[in-house]
């Protein structure tokens, strides 16, 4: 490029290719000055605008950063709250667990009582399912396995499930605590009505000398009603309670001699007559087979023997069907 000077104008020669003609461009002087000025101003403007832009970007970035920081703080606060909540859950659950263990122990005690009862009076029912409640620590043996991280919400769910399980188990224990004593009372009643049945032979001797019903009276020789059975025996032989019950009467008179009356369930009484000795008192609770007195020859009797009688609703009945049980 080549420039030529005229008065207020400049000529620019544009050389392109060797084979092509030279091009002349006439340009005014102020324009020559103006172009770089415009260029300079444009660049300055660009720089200023870039500066403004970068400031704006920095401000935006700062804003975003602040927002993120706030969000992060919120997340941290949430975490702290979650941890606090979980700790509270754990404390509550461990409290419930302690209460549950106490109640389990109580149920186990009741079960032991029931078991003792069964051991004493035979195994009529199957209570083996109760033994599943026995507390043992076999679960604590052989723990291991892969570590799998647990998320907060999973722990939350777990805590909730465990809480639900505890509530369910508590309800179950409520039911059992309520039922076992009732079962025990029923079992005692059943046992009493079974052992209360006057079915035990009342003295060691098995020699029956007179049966229940009409017979010839040994004193008058006339027909008379015999209200019980006579079992011969030596004076001083033990007399046993035929069934469990309560002693109603111990007395002596000219007809019965020394005698005992025991009350049993179902309105039954057993009578023991002509005794030489009485070992119990009215109001005593006696067990089946317990020695209550001694064979004698007191009252209207021709020799040492035991007169045994069963009375049902004030009426003597044949004792043999009972004794054959
Ligand atoms: Zn008799």
From TrEMBL:
Domain M23ase beta-sheet core: 225-319
The keyword Membrane appears for this protein: yes
Membrane-crossing segments per the record: 31-52
Domain of life: Bacteria
Keywords: Membrane, Transmembrane, Transmembrane helix
GO molecular function: metalloendopeptidase activity
InterPro entries, A to Z: Cell_wall_metabolism_enzyme, Dup_hybrid_motif, M23ase_b-sheet_dom
Pfam families for this protein: Peptidase_M23 (PF01551)
Protein name: M23 family peptidase
């Amino acid at each position: 490029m080549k420039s030529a000077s005229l008065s207020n104008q400049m000529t620019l020669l544009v050389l392109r290719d060797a084979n092509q003609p030279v091009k002349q461009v006439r340009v005014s002087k102020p324009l020559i000055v103006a172009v770089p000025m415009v260029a300079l101003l444009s660049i300055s403007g660009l720089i200023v605008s870039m500066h403004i832009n970068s400031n704006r970007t920095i401000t935006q970035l700062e804003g975003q950063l602040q927002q993120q920081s706030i969000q992060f703080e919120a997340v941290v606060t949430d975490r702290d709250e979650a941890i606090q909540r979980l700790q509270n859950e754990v404390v509550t659950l461990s409290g419930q667990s302690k209460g549950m263990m106490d109640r389990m122990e109580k149920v186990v005690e009741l079960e032991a009582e029931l078991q003792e009862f069964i051991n004493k009076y035979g195994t009529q029912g199957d209570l083996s399912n109760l033994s599943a409640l026995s507390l043992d620590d076999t679960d604590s043996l052989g723990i291991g396995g892969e570590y799998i991280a647990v998320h907060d919400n999973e722990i939350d769910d777990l805590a909730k499930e465990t809480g639900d399980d505890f509530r369910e188990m508590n309800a179950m224990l409520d039911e059992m605590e309520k039922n076992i004593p009732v079962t025990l009372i029923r079992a005692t009643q059943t046992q009493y009505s079974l052992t209360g049945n006057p079915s035990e032979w009342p003295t060691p001797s098995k020699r029956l000398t007179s049966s229940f019903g009409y017979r010839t009276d040994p004193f008058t020789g006339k027909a008379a009603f015999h209200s019980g059975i006579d079992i011969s025996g030596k004076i001083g032989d033990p007399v046993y309670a035929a069934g469990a019950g309560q002693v109603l009467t111990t007395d002596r008179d000219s007809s019965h001699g020394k005698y005992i009356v025991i009350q049993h369930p179902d309105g039954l009484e057993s009578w023991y007559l002509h005794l030489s000795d009485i070992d119990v008192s009215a109001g005593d609770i006696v067990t089946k087979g317990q020695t209550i007195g001694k064979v004698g020859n007191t009252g209207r009797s021709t020799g040492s023997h035991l007169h045994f009688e069963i009375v049902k609703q004030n009426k003597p009945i044949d004792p043999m069907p009972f004794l054959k049980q």
